[in-house]
Specification:
CATH superfamily: Lipopolysaccharide (LPS) transport protein A like domain
Strand content: over 45%
Shape: elongated
Strand order of the largest sheet: 2-3-6-7-5-4
Structural class: alpha+beta
CATH class: Mainly Beta
Distance between the termini: 75 Å
Oligomer: single chain
């Protein structure tokens, strides 16, 4: 009796399978709603058993567009980068982020703040982290505060190594800046 039920069950299972993958392919061609969502996440990235960074975010949506994976953090994220001794040495906060794993790029936006162990602080509306070239950069308006030097620099464009220790402001400007001008820049999504 059991063997007959097993044969009937296997026959039904095999009859339900099809070698026709056209329906699956059609989902990809139409850009089907292939996505997953994670809430209240904390991810740790490592390389060769060495912890590199930790990402905390209220939400991450992973989706596919044109057969490429995109990871979106629509409610922002916080990232801690670690030294070899596992002490954090860089902190990043942003209101929104997109990660493109195949391109090895992360674009953070909306009130971006980047800090290093010397308490230097970069504020901007957008920052690109190029994982492949180990660079952090933007062409947007920036405010760089360096309390150790008693200095604040304003400019457009910024490039840094991944450790935010060697950096350059592309187009610095100095002089008197009226508070209203700073408010206007801030309200347009800049610091």
């Amino acid at each position: 009796m059991k063997s007959r039920l097993l044969i009937i069950w296997l026959s039904a299972l095999l009859a339900g399978c099809s070698a026709d993958t056209s329906k699956i392919d059609a989902l990809y061609e139409k850009g089907g709603d292939m996505q997953e969502s994670l809430k209240d996440l904390e991810m740790t990235y490592s390389d060769s058993a060495r912890v590199l960074l930790t990402v905390k975010a209220p939400e991450m949506i992973t989706r596919e567009e044109d057969r490429k994976i995109i990871e979106e953090f629509p409610k922002g994220l916080q990232v801690e980068f670690y030294q070899q001794d596992l002490r954090p040495n860089i902190w990043l906060k942003a209101g929104h982020a997109l990660r493109f794993p195949e391109e090895k790029k992360v674009i953070v936006s909306q009130h971006v703040q980047l800090y290093n162990a010397e308490n230097d602080k970069l504020e901007t509306s957008e920052l690109i982290w190029d994982e492949g070239n180990q660079k952090i950069y933007t062409d947007k308006f920036i405010r760089l505060t360096q309390p150790g030097k008693g200095d604040t620099t304003y400019g457009f464009g910024f490039m840094s190594d991944l450790h935010f220790t060697r950096f350059e402001v592309k187009r610095k400007f100095s002089g008197k800046i009226e508070e209203t001008m700073l408010r206007e820049l801030s309200s347009s999504g800049n610091p």
